[in-house]
Design brief:
With 371 residues, the chain is an alpha/beta fold. Helix content is 36%, strand content 16%. The protein has two domains: 184 residues, NAD(P)-binding Rossmann-like Domain (Rossmann fold, 3-Layer(aba) Sandwich); 175 residues, 3-Layer(aba) Sandwich (Rossmann fold), CATH 3.40.50. Helix 6 runs antiparallel to helix 11 and helix 11 crosses helix 12.
Length: 371
């Protein structure tokens, strides 16, 4: 198979989808690898490392796409990249299509095979490619919130850990999955007063036990969310329904009731967000204010720490890329249910139920079975 690796174009997105060692493995297995010039530089992986691994360094994204059967990158393909692609070509990247009907329609009209990192799902419900970036984002969320909570950044001027004789800052985390658990770890480590809400009692019990009852665990319902959010200094949105649009759990009215100078970091923003007032922002312009509450909506948070994120992500994505290359698309999808669940669009059909429901599209179940 001919594998192409694109340079990221999103604002300050410095991750790259393939490591030089992985490129070497593909070449030694008989596959071709082309990478766009400079794609790895932001992660301190210069072009010479890829050349030494046997990859061809190509000047433009258009050339990479034209000469590849499978194109991989970190973030979703741009409109122009889709225009350069041909029917049946594979795009293997984060997609987050549920809140993006225009992008979904463009992929469908182009008859691509679009495999989303975030929807590759094992039989036990785990999301092995999403997990490492969720872990990074959850850790960063508290770090970012603590920064914007400072008075010089427009925040309330609260130190999350407090000092002797003064109350600690309050951190409320909605969702106790990978993002939420990582956020709890950092917030607790900073000494904050932490509340985490979820609908899964097992997750709440787990967190209660490992922190020896020193955090607050609440069942996620409207009453508990309202009480927690109104008094918090920091609100972290950590809700995930795989492939689907995030549910709106924090209303505009509730944001209006929050304390002036408090901070919202909604990690679910790339799936539409769980806070009504959130919208996607960029690393260059990360925050805005609604009702005197600071909102941080950067949709590619792990891009802020690209070297750590690149190694964590590329190690997670590579086993399925190997499978695609060694078996070919149809056989890989038939033999690997986790990879098959990751297919969002297949030659003009919507093949992920969450995306279909979010956009009221017809759902097609595994059309590759007869390919």
């Amino acid at each position: 198979m001919r594998v192409g690796v694109l340079r990221e174009t999103k604002d300050r997105e410095l991750r790259v989808a393939l490591l030089p060692d992985s490129a070497r493995w593909l070449r030694e297995a008989g596959h071709e690898v082309r990478i766009e010039r400079g794609a790895g530089e932001g992660s301190d992986l210069p072009d010479d490392l890829y050349r030494a691994a046997g990859a061809a360094v190509v000047d433009t994204a258009e050339e990479v796409i034209a000469e590849s059967d499978l194109v991989t990158k970190v973030k979703e393909p741009t409109w122009q990249e889709i225009e350069w692609m041909r029917p049946g070509q594979i795009i293997y990247s984060y997609l987050h299509l549920a809140p993006e009907p225009a992008l979904t329609n463009h992929i469908l009209e182009s008859e691509l095979v679009a495999i989303g990192f975030e929807t590759v799902q094992t039989d036990d419900g785990m999301l092995p490619i999403l997990i490492p970036m969720s872990d990074v984002a959850g850790r960063l969320a508290v770090q970012v919130a603590a920064h914007y909570l400072q008075a010089d950044q427009g925040g309330r001027g609260v130190l999350l850990g407090g000092v002797p004789g003064v109350d600690r800052g309050n951190v409320t985390i909605v969702g106790a999955g990978v993002v939420g658990t990582a956020a709890v770890r950092i917030a607790f480590g900073l000494g904050a007063d932490v509340t985490v809400l979820d609908v899964d009692h097992r997750r709440l019990s787990y967190l209660y036990d490992i922190y020896h009852g020193e955090i607050h665990t609440l069942f996620s319902n409207p009453a508990n969310i309202e009480r927690s959010v109104r008094q918090t200094d920091v609100l972290i949105g950590a809700v995930l329904i795989p492939g689907a649009r995030a549910p709106n759990l924090v209303s505009r009215k509730l944001v209006d009731d929050m304390q002036a100078g408090s901070v919202i970091v909604d990690v679910a923003v790339d799936q539409g967000g769980c806070v009504e007032t959130i919208r996607p922002t960029t690393h260059s312009d990360p925050v805005y204010t609604v009702s005197d509450v600071i909102h941080y909506g950067v949709a590619n948070m792990p891009g802020a720490v690209p070297r750590t994120s690149t190694f964590a992500l590329a190690n997670a994505t590579f086993p399925w890329l190997q499978n695609l290359c060694m078996q070919g698309l149809s056989e890989a999808l038939r033999s690997d249910p986790a990879l098959a669940r990751g297919v969002n669009c297949y030659r003009g059909r919507t093949t992920h139920r969450g995306v279909a429901v979010a956009q009221d599209l017809e759902f097609s179940e595994a059309p590759w079975r007869n390919a």
